[in-house]
Every structure is written in C-alpha cells, then in structure tokens.
TrEMBL record:
A Pfam family it matches: CBS
Gene3D superfamilies linked to this entry: CBS-domain
Top-rank taxon: Eukaryota
Keyword Repeat listed: yes
Keywords: CBS domain, Repeat
PROSITE patterns from the UniProt entry: CBS
Residue span, CBS domain: 330-387
Protein name: CBS domain-containing protein CBSX5-like
Length: 389
C-alpha cells in the first residue's frame, strides 16, 4: 500500500490550487515590496521572464520560476547597516539581490511526476515545487488579463501552482495508517531529531546578531530559539511571525535586544514604549534616513500594520491564495516544543496545527536538545518506502 501511495502523481495534490502570482527577476526590491503589500500576498514567485514585455518573442521564450520573495527577505535586506543608512537607495536595488545564488529552493515538476519525486526534491532542499495547472483553458480575453503586471500568473502560455512541504505532509498524514508502526514510534528512535542545525540566541543578546540567523532560518525553514541563562527555551524569533510585519521591523532588529524583539514582533503590534525606544536608538546611531522612512508611512499609527493575525501557509507562504489553507490563526513568539519520546505522528499533528514546519525538542527541564523539521520527517517516510521496495 505504501508503494501505491508514493506512485500517486503530484497533480493529485494540485486540485483546487490557485495559480501563483509573480514578479519578474528584473523588478526592484521596492517593486517587490509594493507588490507584496498591494496583492495581499506573503510571498510571490520570481520568474526569469520580463513580465513588462508584451511581445510574442517574450511569450515564446522559456520562462522559469527561479525563486520566491517574501517580507522576511525585504526586512533582512533593509536591516543591513548600509541599507539602514539609505533605505531609499536599498529599495532601488535589483530583486535578484534577495534570491540566493545557486538557490534550489524552488523546483519545477511536471504534473505526472510521482509523489516520491517531489519528496526527493524536498530532501535536496526545495521549499516549493512548481507544477503546471492542467485543466484551465486560457482564452484570449483571459490571456490579456493575466498579462497584467500587477496580477501576472501566465508563463509559457500556462498557469502554475506550487506545492509546499506542508501540502505533502498533510497528504501523508491523511494516509498515516499505511506507515504503521513508524508513525507511532518516538522521534528519538527514528533519528528524526537534528541536534546540529540549531539556531539560537540568549534573551539579552543584541537582536542585530539575529539578522544572519533569521536569513538562515528562512532557508532552513526553521526559527531562531531564544534561551535563558540555563539554555531553556523561552520563545523564538520566527520568520513566520516576521513575515506578517511591516518592513520597518528592520529598525527593531538593528536596535533592540533579542528578547525585546520578540515582544516587538508579537502579534497585536509592538508596545508604544518599544516603538519610541527604536526611534531614539535610530537617532543615536545616526540612522535618521530610516527614521524618516518609518514616519513617512501613515499606516504605522495603527498597531495592526506591524503584525497581522493571519497564519501563513508553510514557508511557501500563501496567506490568501498560495495553497488552499486559509485558516486564520495568531502566530506569537511562543515556541512550539515536543520531547524526545514524542511520537512521529504527534509531532506531525503539532506542527501542522500550528502552521509551522518544525518543532523544537526539549528535555523535561526545558533545555533545548534539538529540532524536528518537515525535511527530517520526509526522510523517515522515504526510508520507510525504500524498506518496502
């Protein structure tokens, strides 16, 4: 039965999925930021073709999805010292500065590819898998609409959706009975706990030291744990939460402690005293240009502009249309934890219910001992498949 499950085509998981909205790699960081705001998306696909061109030549050229961009990318970019000094210039930078060189975070597959092929790509590091939508007929009128720069979903005369790790793990959870007894086995017996790739800071560490860790956690699809003096987990700085925030959070990253940053990005908006503290420290550090950048946006007068209460789809992040899961949950800075003896299925349910792609592993005293990710779960399922072959 396991073999028949993994022989299913990826198109089986694409039913009802909307086409991805996109940007051209020729866009700027500022244009990406504007599109993220305007379209209400928490991430956008980035394609190699130039969407501003309407010629037949541009349509006939092979167009590939080369990456994705989200608010976390923009915030980490703006949070760099040189960009805090001149945010206007930073926004004029080409979008490609936000796409890691040699990135394989987004991969293409044909609709008839097998589920096991998709899992293999995930184990190679893919976050999103781009699949052509088969059943939609592209009429001339619809084609004109889809070529709109503000809502482009058409490439190579086709529309595409993308699968995320969350999509595939939900699919496996629905068939979890086929993977007994490993599904009920403790994670420490399945070698599913990663004890090496742990990103962590202590509460009083400067949040600026978290900037490279946030970028790294985005690639790893994890988070940055915040520890007390006894290495107990007391919270986290999560890209999931940061992705719902305003780009001015870059200033908080540059000026606050890790503990204060947790409070700043917590859903519900930052406390007024922390907002003022950030502004005071921007002045002290002579980042007046970024202070003006913050104050130019009138929406900052509303706490809700800093952090929405929408939950994002796994790090494919389709808050409204990325993958069909539109539950509205509140993401806070509280870390989601399990124990070494927790079962695999329990950890799967825990991660999916909280809309995260990882769960921290702690000992009975709360000290951090590792992390379980979607990728490590997929590795367990892949090994099970091989044993059944």
């Amino acid at each position: 039965m396991g073999l028949s499950l993994f022989s299913h085509e990826v198109s089986d998981l694409c039913l009802g999925k909307p086409p991805v909205k996109s940007l051209s790699i020729s866009a700027t960081v500022g244009e990406a930021l504007s599109a993220l705001r305007r379209l209400g998306e928490s991430s956008l696909s980035v394609w190699s073709c130039d969407h501003s061109e309407k010629s037949d030549k541009s349509e006939s050229e092979d167009c590939l999805c080369v990456g994705k961009v989200c608010m976390v990318d923009v915030i980490c970019f703006l949070g760099k010292e040189e960009n805090l000094s001149c945010p206007a210039k930073a926004l004029e930078a080409p979008l490609e500065v936000l796409i890691p060189k040699g990135s394989a975070l987004v991969r293409h597959l044909e609709p008839n590819a097998s589920l096991v092929e998709a899992i293999d790509l995930i184990l190679e590091g893919a976050h999103n898998i781009v699949i052509p939508i088969q059943s939609r007929r592209i009429t001339a009128t619809r084609k004109m609409l889809l070529h709109s720069h503000s809502f482009n979903t058409l490439h190579n005369n086709r529309e595409y959706c993308w699968l995320t790790q969350e999509d595939i793990l939900r699919y496996l959870l629905n068939s979890i009975g086929r993977f007994s007894p490993i599904s009920n086995s403790p994670i420490n017996s399945l070698q599913a706990i990663d004890t090496e790739n742990i990103l962590a800071l202590h509460y009083d560490d400067p949040a600026s030291s978290a900037l490279p860790l946030i970028s790294q956690s985005l690639v790893q699809q994890t988070s940055v744990a915040i520890l007390d003096e006894y290495s107990r987990v007391i919270g986290e700085i999560s890209p999931y939460t940061i992705n719902t925030c305003h780009e001015s959070v870059a200033a908080a990253v540059a000026t606050l402690s890790a503990g204060d940053l947790m409070s700043y990005i917590d859903c519900g908006g930052p406390p007024d005293e922390l907002v003022q503290l950030v502004k005071d420290r921007l002045e002290e550090k002579k980042y007046g240009a970024f202070l003006e950048f913050m104050e130019e946006d009138s929406t900052l007068s509303s706490a809700s502009s800093f952090c929405s209460t929408s939950s994002d789809e796994e790090f494919g992040w389709g808050r409204r249309s990325g993958g069909g899961y539109s539950a509205r949950l509140v993401r806070r800075s509280e870390a989601i934890v399990c124990y070494p003896r927790s079962s695999l299925v329990a950890v799967m349910v825990q991660a999916l219910s909280h809309r995260v792609s990882y769960v921290w592993v702690v000992e009975e005293d709360g000290t951090l001992s590792g992390i379980v990710t979607f990728a490590s779960m997929f590795k367990v399922f892949r090994e099970r498949l091989r044993s059944m072959a």
